[in-house]
Amino acid sequence: MSIADSRKPRGRPPTGIGKAIGLRLYPELDASLDAWIADQPDPKPSRPEAIREALAEHLKAKGYLK
């Protein structure tokens, strides 16, 4: 008979929404993103939120997202 492992899993719990992607930013994009975030009103968006917003705005402008 074995004792069940009752430790909690590590890390953030999965949300079941979205797809995780890895992303590297060129230094000029990184600095520009940080400058844009700094110009936003409080509460300031997180870096992932800022990237999602910029991507959504771009896709809407190009007609790929309503």
Draw up the topology in text.
Layout: H1 27-39, H2 47-61
> Radius of gyration from the CA trace?
18 Å
Q: Report the principal-axis shape.
A: elongated
End-to-end C-alpha gap: 57 Å
Strand content: under 5%
Structural class, please? mainly alpha
Catalogue the unreliable spans. none
Overall mean pLDDT stands at 90
Number of strands: 0
What share of residues is helical?
Answer: 40-55%
Concise summary:
This protein has 66 residues and is mainly α. It contains two helices and no strands.
Question: How would you describe this protein?
Answer:
The chain has a domain at 27-61. 42% of the residues lie in helices and 0% in strands. It has two helices and no strands. The longest helix is centred in the last third of the chain and has 15 residues, at 47-61. The radius of gyration is 18 Å and the shape is elongated.
Can you give keywords for this protein?
single chain, 66 residues, mainly alpha, 0% strand, elongated
